[in-house]
């Protein structure tokens, strides 16, 4: 794995190399399972990778309510029309950060989920803002390596109540807005949330084709 890691980030940004990066980021962690066991999560969909802690308040097939703890993330924002293109471009930059493009020159283990904060453009031909983030592993939460690329930044998600909907398969331009609309439909009038943005959260590499676990997150405003 290591002989590839230096070469791959310099490859041309093609769909194929990006897919490869997606897969390698996750595979790379498989080999270091034992190292990160301390902070590993017991949630089956976190697959023994570090993932942010939450307390479950409600769980049905229609939706869940979670109380997340404050957490640090490394992020980049892409403005565009295409969810998949934006996600892949952002993933590439974040991958370079975890591969060592940070002020501590350390390799950082892959985590889940990869979240994408979608701030929809106002109209079908207006660009949306996609902010894609990797969760910073527990051992780096307090002494977080700073990104060396200016498009990347470290941000904190506060303690939040989150409305969550689980869906399966591959996330694409067609299904995530539908899942978000469905989450909106199952919430009642007292369950309010910030309507200016929402998140997709992905827990699988693109080479996993079965039992893919994805989520839509709405940040509640009825604390
Ligand atoms: C919610 O319920 C499902 C189905 O019973 C279960 O698999 C899952 O572990 C529960 N909790 C979360 C956080 O998904
Ligand atoms: C995207 O972000 C830019 C810069 O912060 C902002 O000016 C713009 O209004 C945002 N667009 C949407 C659709 O939120
Ligand atoms: C989007 O994903 C859904 C569910 O995985 C699938 O049924 C649909 O064909 C996909 N659409 C496109 C345009 O890829
Ligand atoms: C909305 O749902 C919550 C949780 O089930 C419930 O406590 C509340 O009473 C409901 N509100 C309305 C207006 O139905």
Provide a descriptive summary of the structure in words:
It is a single chain. With 223 residues, the protein is of the alpha+beta class. The chain has helices at residues 2-5, 15-30, 83-99, 175-186; strands at residues 54-59, 64-68, 71-80, 114-119, 128-135, 152-157, 160-167, 198-202, 214-219. It has a single domain (7-219), classed as Multidrug-efflux Transporter 1 Regulator Bmrr, Chain A (Alpha-Beta Barrel). The protein has a 9-stranded antiparallel sheet, with helices on one face. Bound molecules: 2-acetamido-2-deoxy-beta-D-glucopyranose (NAG) (4 copies). Residues 188-191 line the site of one 2-acetamido-2-deoxy-beta-D-glucopyranose (NAG).
Q: What is the total number of structural domains? A: 1
What is the CATH topology classification name?
Multidrug-efflux Transporter 1 Regulator Bmrr, Chain A
Total strands = 9
Query: Beta-strand percentage?
Result: 25-35%
**Helix content, binned percent:** 10-25%
Query: Main sheet: which strands, in order across?
Result: 1-2-7-9-8-4-5-3-6
- As a whole number of angstroms, the C-alpha radius of gyration is 17 Å
Q: What are the segments in which pLDDT stays under 50 over at least 5 consecutive residues?
A: 1-15, 29-40
Reading the helices and strands in chain order gives HHEEEHEEEEHEE
Question: How does CATH name the architecture?
Answer: Alpha-Beta Barrel
Number of helices: 4
CATH homologous superfamily grouping: Regulatory factor, effector binding domain
Global geometry: globular
Largest sheet: 9 strands, antiparallel
Based on secondary structure, the structural category is: alpha+beta
Mean of all residue-level pLDDT scores:
86
Protein name: Heme-binding protein 2
Family: Belongs to the HEBP family.
Signal peptide: 1-32
Keywords: Signal
């Amino acid at each position: 794995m290591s002989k590839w890691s230096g070469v791959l980030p310099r490859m041309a940004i093609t769909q194929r190399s990006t897919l490869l990066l997606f897969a390698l980021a996750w595979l790379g962690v498989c080999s270091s399972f034992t190292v990160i066991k301390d902070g590993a999560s017991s949630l089956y969909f976190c697959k023994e990778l570090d993932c942010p802690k939450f307390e479950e308040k409600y769980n049905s097939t229609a939706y869940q309510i979670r109380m997340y703890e404050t957490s640090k993330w490394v992020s980049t924002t892409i403005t565009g029309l295409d969810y998949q293109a934006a996600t892949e471009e952002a993933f590439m930059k974040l991958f370079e950060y975890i591969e060592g493009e940070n002020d501590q020159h350390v390799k950082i283990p892959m985590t889940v989920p990869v979240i994408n904060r979608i701030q929809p453009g106002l109209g079908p031909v207006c660009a949306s803002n996609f902010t894609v983030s990797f969760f910073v592993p527990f051992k780096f939460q307090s002494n977080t390596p700073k990104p060396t690329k200016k498009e990347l930044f470290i941000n904190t998600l506060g303690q939040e109540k989150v409305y969550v909907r689980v869906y399966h398969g591959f996330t694409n331009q067609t299904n995530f807005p539908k899942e978000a609309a469905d989450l909106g439909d199952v919430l009642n009038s007292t369950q309010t949330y910030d309507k200016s943005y929402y998140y997709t959260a992905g827990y699988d590499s693109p080479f996993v084709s079965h039992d893919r676990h994805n989520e839509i997150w709405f940040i509640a405003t009825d604390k």
